[in-house]
Amino acid sequence: MRVTSVYIHIPFCRRKCNYCDFASTALYGHEQELAAYPTWLRQELALYQPKLDLSHLETIYFGGGTPSLLTPQQVAEILSWFPPAGEITLEANPETVEGQRLHDYRQAGINRLSLGIQSFQPALLSAMGRGHSAAQAKAAVAAARQAGLENINLDLIYGLPAQTLAMWQEDLTQALALESEHISLYGLTLHEGTPWGDDPMIHAADQDLSADMLELAIDRLAAAGYRHYEIANFARPGFASRHNCAYWQRENYLGLGVAAASCLAERRFANHPTLAAYAAALAAGKRPVAEEETLTIDQVLAEAMFLGLRLEKGVVAKEFYRRYGADPLRRYHRELARMQKLGLLETDDGVIRLTRRGLLLGNEVFAEFL
Length: 370
Ligand code: SF4
Fold this sequence. Notes:
Elements: E1 5-10, E2 12-13, E3 25-26, H1 31-48, E4 59-64, H2 72-79, E5 87-92, H3 99-108, E6 112-118, H4 122-128, H5 134-146, E7 152-158, H6 165-177, E8 182-187, H7 207-223, E9 227-230, E10 233-235, H8 242-248, E11 253-256, E12 261-264, E13 267-271, H9 275-283, E14 289-294, H10 297-308, E15 315-316, H11 317-324, H12 328-331, H13 333-341, E16 345-348, E17 351-354, H14 356-360, H15 362-367
Parallel strand pairs: 1-4, 1-11, 2-3, 4-5, 5-6, 6-7, 7-8
Antiparallel strand pairs: 8-10, 9-10, 12-13, 13-14, 15-17, 16-17
The structure holds iron/sulfur cluster.
Iron/sulfur cluster (SF4) binds at residues 13, 16-17, 20, 22, 24, 64-66, 93, 116.
């Protein structure tokens, strides 16, 4: 089976942020595991290599956690296992990168950098438990440019406790001044088991304020020349994330590392979420998979709908039919009619798309197809 994208999860961070429920561990005391991690990844890849065709790889994505805790030498070693891919992304936190390191990542093959900026407000950064300042974030962008990185994403968060619309406006202004090629926006969700999620005094912004923040961002980023190509993602022309588009278009991708998820046609599987279980499975010569399912055709179609609707392009009925043998306009006519009546969806010339209101209430639309 041909795989066009590989995701590599690096489950270590210098310290845990207060809102974070991603699979990552504070590095202190786990330095040896970080050093051993490429060896485990190599073992895991070897379990797939006889069966999967990786010769047409288009994207490789180091996500986390904080992948910039890997040394450039480790990144180069990992990339040496794969054929060259057009887009190779490394997620990084601003405090973990400086000029020489970024230069060395570039030399290792990284050509897209995704920086976890989140906010430029000192009070919000400190409340989130982020390990960097606004000045470090700006310095990281400047250093990345100097290192020759021409494709940079900035992650920002909205809907934070105590975040006002004026603060968000200022964050957008400062992000736009950095002239990155791509900006991703995340609406805060509180998760049980995190310091914020377990603190009854912490509340995310209410739904109305969050929607106002997203609307403000949509307008400002559009005015600055960014295309809103996916619900949470904005790019200058030609800089949409090819890797993430592979997810939304249901292309085959292989996930390696702790908690990494894979999609191979109708098969879905996800790795063990802890380092110990992941390493133990590999030591026993087994795939470190914790959950695996084969989707029914109904599930495949539903997934194609709610993932496709995330994209500005929408779901093109003819393409959908060609790929899945079903006409979405007929198959989902009841759901589509209901969503159209609520002003959340529109259909035009065989294309189904979210309206602007639908963009703000995307989860309600997607739930229709589950
Ligand atoms: S740096 Fe990212 S992955 Fe690590 S703890 Fe913070 S939010 Fe989570």
